[in-house]
Amino acid sequence: MSNPPHLVLNASTVTVDPDATVEVGFMNYEDGDDRLSRIRREVRGTHLVLRGGSEIRIVRLIDAVETIGDRTEEVRLADDPGLLCALVRERLIAMFSEVGNGEIRSHRPVALVSGRPDDNLLPKVLRDRERGRVPPWLARRVKYEFDPRYFDQVDDGVTVMLSFGTRTGNHIEATCDELLAAGVRLHGRYVEVADSGDDQRLGQRRTLVGRVADIKDGIIHLGDPRPGWSEVALADAYLEPRAENLEACVVALVGRDGGNTAERLREASGFVTQGPSRLHRAQRFLSFIRQRGLHLAPGVTASLGDLVASRQPEFPEWEAFSPPTLIFHPSATRTSTVSYKGIDEHGPYDQAVFPHKRPRIAIICQAHRQGDTEKFVESFFEGLPGNVYGKGFLRRFALQRPQVEVFCTRDRSAGAYEAACRAAIEHATDSGSRWDLALVQIEDEFKLLPPAENPYLVTKSVLFRHQVPAQEFTLRTMGLDRNQLTYALNNLSLASYAKLGGTPWVLEADRTVAHELVIGLRSYKHQQSRFGSKGRYVGLTTVFKGDGQYLLEGRTRAVPFEDYSAEMLETLRKAVAAVREQQNWDGRENVRLVFHAFKPMRTAEIDAVRALMEEAGLPNAEFAFVRMVEDHPFALMDTNQPGMKVWSSRGKKGVYAPPRGVFIPMGVNDALLALKGPRSVKQESDGLPRPLLMRVHPASTFTDLRYLARQAYNFSCHSWRTFGPAGMPITVDYSGWIAEMLGQLQAVPGWSDDSMLGRISMTRWFL
Predict the structure, then answer these.
(1) Domain check: are 516 and 546 in the same one?
(2) Contact by Cβ (8 Å): 488, 723
(3) The domain that contains 753 carries what CATH number?
(4) Of 61, 79, 97, which residue sits at a domain end?
(5) How far is CA 206 from the centre of its chain?
(6) How far is CA 649 from CA 367, 427, 487, in A?
């Protein structure tokens, strides 16, 4: 029997005397005023200079100077946790500057690139004979990040925490003329220029200026340039420190044996970010900072507690959510907490009414891989006897043998795939029918091609315009061994059924409110070049509760970022109208709207949602506006988790990974939710999975963190792309996939968003 979790955060509480005050000077500030940067340069190291709205605040840090300002005021730090956090950051920068042995890269978070020899990973992945040929200006170094943040507590108090983060980063410190002399090919690669910035304590900043198009007389002529740039001197330019560029430098210096350095470095970096390494490094820096002391201002010193752990009495009251109940029959009598077991035991939720019992399926494949493709598809249809995919697609989902036609491409080009798709469409038209699904064989390398040349995207474009959902599989998937193929076919079958318009299962809903709508929003940025035109699209997903079940609303959409606010309201208006009619809502029943958003909701958007509910005759609706934050400084470790064996190596994956479903309230509006456990980690070099940070907007009228976290966790078990649990709720994942696919299709010639207005929008085409 495994030990109960012992949870540890990579963070320590920061405390000061409750009555501690600092003297703050105030000056007026107007946009465009250069006084802010000028004052910062003049008093760097002796004063902390902050901007807050229309004011500049200045805090003296040492006794030997006076407070600067038009007026002064004593500020109690307990009443201003933001100022306390700023003072901690300033002290850390001063501390690391004094000690040396590293380079400070940023203020927020305070980022320190380690100068320790042991923290350079490149020599560790090179052979003995190669190390002496790689100079110190080429490295992958460990970077430490220190980020103080505060959380409002239920009792009106505030908790300030300092997190200790660990990352790795590439470093190419030689200039481009030195690289060229060393034999590094620069053409086609992006370059940067140095910028010292206004804080001399920070290391050299770099600005990306463009791609090397040509080199003449010591001058780089730029392609895809940053606005205002056309050329840069070789001696002033630095190669962008991407993994492939670092590998190109290694190959130039040591020969072909330096190939695959990027992959070896990725694995080495993964070990640095594993749980035990993260914990050790956090504890080491905690001890170092304690020894040096956090002297923030005259008469004010902060103290650091131990790393926050579940055995401490002050640790938040946490819990691990159990898997949700999935329903496989409209009567709600056939249930399971394991999706693939529920499907195999009970069949899909809608099997009695599913209209495509004998689906028409087109197969698109390369002519020289037709035999292998047909064999793969047969295994997909009929299953692999003796394992968890024994039933196959047809028996698992209670389908008859489909009507299948194969359409071959003459080669692997986008044009050939487009021609095969057109042949499939013409065949269906001539026979007076239409395809319910297309199975398309592609290659992994297609994703590296521009959209207009990418057979994957061109195929999607043609098929979607004719209302045919497509399910791809790669040559690599076809070549998997039996054990790995089982998992691939499992997921392929689930997504294919959903794309046919099927409902594999529904999610049981808590009976806490009569009606509930959950709107998910996530964005995707698309650009064909680094400085070319950019497109940002926002996907929207709607889930509603009816008859004790969470049901996915049929229409899916994505819009340009600048239109998302209006589209969100229109989506909400249509969803409320449709669900109101289906579920017989009236204004007297309790209604709750929950938004899962990729960014903080603006006040104007919140006001517009409330006004819309008033207009709809639902003035008493509750609202929860929840931001799902993936990029945050907190890591969560379970020191009782020894990890799981990896079949392909002698190591273990997921060491110290917390159990999936762990919920930790950080404050009245913030919580950590672990959506990836040790089983979610694919290999040992993936490191420690990061929890999700949920932030409930203060304007919300429904603020039950546990309920909202439990709901998000349940939705992460509800994806129809994979039988395994997902790392995000479907409200967010589905929205992201919708935005990504429609954003990429914008660059395919002939595409029109009007294609998504037909019946395909009622399927799960984006899976």
Answers:
(1) yes
(2) no
(3) 3.30.420.10
(4) 79
(5) 25
(6) 37, 49, 19
Whether 644 is covered by a domain: the verdict is no
Structure tokens at 52: 């807050």
Clarify whether residues 370 and 470 are in a common domain.
Answer: yes
C-alpha torsion 381→383→389→393, nearest 10: 20
Q: In whole angstroms, give the CA distance from residue 668 to residue 706.
A: 11
Inter-residue contact 452 to 749 (CB < 8 Å): yes
Tokens of 193: 């220029």
- Beta strands 319-320; 335-336: pairing state: unpaired
CA angle, residues 667, 671, 676, in degrees to nearest 5:
160
In contact, 409 and 365? CB cutoff 8 Å: yes
Give me the phi and psi of 550, to 5 degrees please.
Answer: -90, 125
- Domain's final residue, options 63, 79, 95: 79
d(CA 573, CA 567): 10
Q: What is the pLDDT of residues 253-280, one digit of tens each?
A: 888 766 678 788 888 888 888 999 999 9
- In the predicted structure, residue 559 carries a pLDDT above the cut 90: no
**Segments forming the whole domain that contains residue 385:** 355-499
421 located within any domain: yes
Number of independent structural domains in the chain: 3
Buried b / exposed e over 11-41, threshold 16 CB at 10 Å, is: bbbbebeeebbbbbbbbebeeeeeeeeebbe
Do 533 and 555 fall into the same domain?
yes
Element of type H or E holding 743: helix 730-745
Report helix angle 261-272 to 243-254, nearest 10.
Answer: 120
221: pLDDT confidence band, cut at 50, 70 and 90? Answer: very high
Q: Which two tokens stand for residue 507?
A: 């999610």
Indicate whether 271 belongs to any domain: no
> Which of 106, 59, 60 lies closest to 80 in space, CA to CA?
59
Q: Do both 620 and 721 map to the same domain? A: yes
Tokens of 688: 């420690």
Give the pLDDT confidence score for residue 327 in this predicted structure. 94
